[in-house]
Write a structure and sequence with these properties.
about 270 residues, alpha+beta, Alpha-Beta Plaits, 5-stranded antiparallel β-sheet, 6 helices
Length: about 270
């Protein structure tokens, strides 16, 4: 029997009656559904005051959400969201947001997320940039003919020119990639590249029935760009980049402000 006054760790909003994932929750706690009307929240008990940020706890949170996403519409909470008690959570958050969350569950039904990234092959970007710029070619030639101590300012100018040129090239390539594949998606969200070798990194909200067509389009783009870009496709996965709920949602936001939203291009 669960204690209605005990803290509650939250994973995701799901339809009422949704199946429980086979995974256990963080700290090995069993999962359960906290239900009200048309919606339920996938949760577990929390014997600690707050979940410790650790690789195992983060993995457990992600595994629960991903398994739930395979079985039903799942709106994730961020890692670390805790309600003071089941009773207060039902009486405040769920009572206040039941209708809005039911609409969001309907909005995201049969949708999944896929991430796409493209990384430049070796020094392809730099070679392409230099080949297209006589100014860069002249700067490199001038620096090569003189001692390093005498070319300090030229090397600074060269570095700035290269950095600006690479930024513009990444932007052009990102637009090209986006234009090729967004037609299969409901929405796109550009993600921050991990380093300067990444030309393009984005998440896509896709209907389940169109995932194969989306993947085939990415494969065709990768084949056309294979001399200069290497593509990586991750997913399908839970809607991490298009749905977010955090601690703020437990503290008085109106249903119209609830942070469960489609972001990026529609």
């Amino acid at each position: 029997m669960t204690d209605p006054d005990a803290a509650l760790y939250l994973y995701a909003v799901v339809p009422v009656g949704a199946p429980l994932p086979g995974a256990t929750g963080i700290i090995g706690e069993p999962l359960r559904l906290v239900e009200r009307g048309q919606i339920a929240v996938l949760a577990s008990g929390l014997p600690e005051a707050a979940p410790r940020i650790s690789a195992s706890n983060v993995r457990a949170h992600q595994q629960v959400v991903e398994e739930s996403h395979l079985a039903t519409t799942t709106l994730p909470f961020r890692f670390g969201v805790v309600a003071d008690s089941e009773e207060s959570f039902v009486d405040s958050f769920l009572a206040r947001h039941e209708a809005a969350l039911a609409r969001k569950l309907a909005d995201f039904e049969d949708l999944t997320e896929v991430r796409v990234s493209a990384r430049y092959v070796g020094d392809a970007a730099l070679r392409e940039l230099v080949a297209a710029s006589r100014r860069l070619q002249r700067l490199r030639e001038a620096i090569a003919r003189r001692p390093a101590a005498a070319t300090y300012y030229e090397r600074i100018a060269l570095g700035e020119e290269v950095a600006n040129g690479l930024a513009q090239l990444r932007e052009r390539d990102a637009e090209t990639c986006s234009a090729s594949i967004t037609r299969h998606a409901r929405a796109e969200r550009r993600l921050r590249p991990s380093d300067e070798d990444v030309a393009f990194h984005a998440a896509y909200l896709i209907e389940q029935r169109r995932v194969l067509a989306f993947e085939q389009t990415v494969e065709q783009l990768a084949a056309a760009q294979r001399e200069r870009l290497e593509f990586e496709l991750t997913g399908p996965m839970a809607l991490w980049d298009f749905v977010e709920m955090d601690r703020n949602d437990l503290n008085g936001r109106s249903s119209s402000d609830l942070a469960v939203s489609t972001r990026g291009r529609g």
